[in-house]
Specification:
seven-stranded mixed sheet, elongated, alpha+beta, 26% strand, binds biotinyl-5-AMP, 323 residues
C-alpha cells in the first residue's frame, strides 16, 4: 500500500488513474482501490475517482517510511521504521519484536496511525485518537547499568520538549518525571519499558504519545489534556515533529553516552519549571511525600525539601498536586 502513496507523491500534480497505478505497481486494480480507501480512512486527502484519476490534495501527514526516509538524517535512530496503520500498542509491538528471534537493532522505531490499546504507566491507558496523535516507540540499546535507565526517560522528555517548542513555537513544560504540559495541561506522555540482564540494560522501549491535532478529548481526560493544535490554534505536522524529535533525541543520547548523566539532568533542569522551587505532592506506591523541589540528583531522582528541612529523593511516582 505504501507504494501507492509513493506513486501519488511522485505524480502529485498529475491525476493517475487506478488502472495506471495498478499497472505501474504490478498489482491488481482492486488492491489499488482498497489501498486508496485505507489511506483515506487514515486521513490522507486523495482527490478523484478510479477512472478520472487519483491525486493527492497535499502531502499526507501520515508517518510513512516513504515520506520520512528522504528527510531523516540521523545515524541510527529511526532505522528501520515499522509503520502500522493500526496496532494494539506501539510499545507492545516493540516488546514483541524484542522477544522475537531476530531482535531489532538499536534505533528501530515503531510508529502507528492508531492504537487500540495504548498504554500508560501502571496499567493505565493512553487514549489514542486515530490519525490525530503521534504514537511512537523508539528501541534503544544503551550499554549502561540499569540504574541509569530512568535517565533515558528524562532524555526522551527533553527531546520531545525541545522539538515541540521548535516546531510549534509553544511554551512547553515538563512535569516530573516526564509529562509534557502546555498551559498546565498534558500534551505528551512517555512510557519506558526496560529489559535488563543482571545489572545491565539490554534494551529500552521508549513509548511516546503526543496529542497533535485532536480538536477535543473525551470527558474523562478533557479537563487535563490538550493538543498542540488546540494550544496553537492551527494544525501541526506530525511528520515535522517526528523528524525533529528523532534528530534531537539522537544528539542528546550520544552526548549522554560520551559525556555522562549530567548532560541529561542539566538539560532536564533547563527545560522544566518543576526542577526547583515548586511545592508539590508525590504519590509513590503507598507513600505520599510533599515538599518543595530542590533539583535532580545524579540518577534523575527528584529532591524534595520537606517543611521540617529534611530532603527526600523520589525516583518514581506521580505528582498528584502542584502549585
Ligand atoms: C503516560 O502514562 O503518560 C504514558 C503514555 C505513553 C503513551 C505512548 S503512545 C506510544 C506508546 N505505546 C503505548 O502503548 N504507550 C506509549 P501515565 O503517566 O500513566 O498517564 C496516563 C494517564 O494520562 C491516564 O490515566 C489519563 O488520565 C491520561 N491520559 C490518557 N490519554 C491521554 C491523552 N491522549 N492525553 C492526555 N492525557 C491522557
Amino acid at each position: 500500500m505504501d507504494r501507492v502513496v509513493s506513486s501519488l507523491i511522485e505524480n502529485m500534480t498529475v491525476p493517475v488513474s487506478g488502472k495506471q497505478l495498478a499497472r505501474e505497481l504490478g498489482v491488481s486494480y482492486s488492491r489499488v482501490s482498497g489501498a486508496v480507501g485505507r489511506l483515506r480512512n487514515a486521513g490522507v486527502e486523495i482527490l478523484g475517482e478510479p477512472f478520472t484519476g487519483f491525486r493527492l490534495e497535499r502531502l499526507p501527514d501520515v508517518v510513512l517510511p516513504e515520506v520520512l526516509r528522504n528527510r531523516l538524517h540521523t545515524g541510527e535512530i529511526g532505522h528501520p521504521i515499522h509503520h502500522l496503520y493500526t496496532v494494539d500498542s506501539t510499545n507492545a509491538f516493540a516488546v514483541r519484536l524484542l522477544a522475537g528471534n531476530k531482535p531489532p537493532p538499536h534505533g528501530t522505531i515503531v510508529v502507528a496511525e492508531q492504537q487500540t490499546a495504548g498504554r500508560g504507566r501502571l496499567g493505565r491507558k493512553w487514549i489514542s485518537a486515530p490519525g490525530l496523535g503521534l504514537y511512537l516507540t523508539v528501541i534503544v540499546r544503551p550499554e549502561i547499568p540499569s540504574s541509569l535507565g530512568p535517565l533515558m526517560t528524562l532524555a526522551a522528555a527533553v527531546a520531545v520538549h525541545d522539538s515541540i517548542e521548535r516546531v510549534t513555537g509553544l511554551d512547553v513544560d515538563i512535569k516530573w518525571p516526564n509529562d509534557l504540559l502546555v498551559g498546565n495541561k498534558k500534551v505528551c506522555g512517555i512510557l519506558c519499558e526496560l529489559q535488563a540482564e543482571l545489572d545491565r540494560v539490554s534494551s529500552i522501549a521508549m513509548g511516546i504519545g503526543i496529542n497533535v491535532n485532536q480538536p477535543e478529548f473525551p470527558d474523562e481526560i478533557a479537563p487535563i489534556a490538550t493538543s498542540l493544535s488546540i494550544a496553537s490554534g492551527r494544525r501541526q505536522s506530525r511528520i515535522e515533529l517526528l523528524l525533529d524529535f528523532l534528530a534531537a533525541f539522537e544528539r542528546l543520547y550520544r552526548r549522554f553516552l560520551s559525556v555522562g548523566p549530567q548532560i541529561v539532568t542539566d538539560a532536564w533542569t533547563r527545560a522544566s519549571s518543576f526542577a526547583s522551587g515548586r511545592r508539590l505532592e508525590v504519590q509513590d506506591g503507598m507513600r505520599r511525600i510533599s515538599g518543595v523541589t530542590a533539583g535532580l540528583e545524579s540518577l534523575g531522582g527528584l529532591r524534595l525539601r520537606r517543611d521540617d528541612g529534611s530532603v527526600e529523593v523520589v525516583y518514581s511516582g506521580d505528582v498528584i498536586s502542584w502549585e
